[in-house]
From TrEMBL:
Domain of life assignment: Bacteria
Protein name: DUF4236 domain-containing protein
Domain DUF4236: 8-57
Species this chain originates from: Myceligenerans indicum
One Pfam match: DUF4236
InterPro entries: DUF4236 (IPR025330)
Amino acid sequence: MKLGGGNLRYRKRLSLGPLKFNITQKGLSSMSIKLGFWTWNSRTKKHSINLPGGLSWYSNSK
């Protein structure tokens, strides 16, 4: 659907405890697991860790 020269996009994020599901008009786009400071994303296959002081660490490779 076109609106003012742009496209209308459907996105939804569902949370079920530590599981986060990202859904688009095409279906499930990715899933994340968050346990404490650690997070894993199914689409990128990357891990991240939240650190103190607004810093974070994430893996560079899959």
